Amino acid sequence: MANSDINLKFKGYQYQLYPTEDQETFINKTLGCSRYVFIHFLALWESEYKASEKGLSYHSCANLLPALKEELPWLQEVDATS
Q1: For the chain, what are the domain ranges?
Q2: Domain Transposase putative helix-turn-helix spans what residues (predicted)?
Q3: Which of 8, 37, 49, 70 has its CA 20 to 30 Å from the CA of residue 55?
Q4: Closest Cα partner for 30 from 64, 60, 67, 74?
């Protein structure tokens, strides 16, 4: 069966959210913390790669995260899975 014989229909839905002021603050905090953690571990990965030509693994970064949360208590304000 050729591709021209198949009738494909794609549907899309679009939603608009209206968060409250508290929800918007929480969303912004979550995105900011996630961005900070990503950039922090990216810098660690790059410095480790330059030193040993081998970067950090996910598990080594995950093991360093609790110490980072102790050092920076504002990271504990958002959901741990973000």
Answers
A1: 22-77
A2: 11-54
A3: 70
A4: 74
Torsion over CA of 52, 45, 58 and 37, rounded to 10 degrees?
Answer: 160
Cα→Cα distances 46→16, 20, 51, 52, 73, Å: 38, 39, 9, 10, 25
Tokens of 4: 């021209």
The pTM of the full predicted model, rounded to 2 decimals, is 0.75
| Averaged pLDDT, 72-80 | 93
Q: Among 28, 26, 47, 48, which Cα is nearest to 36's?
A: 28
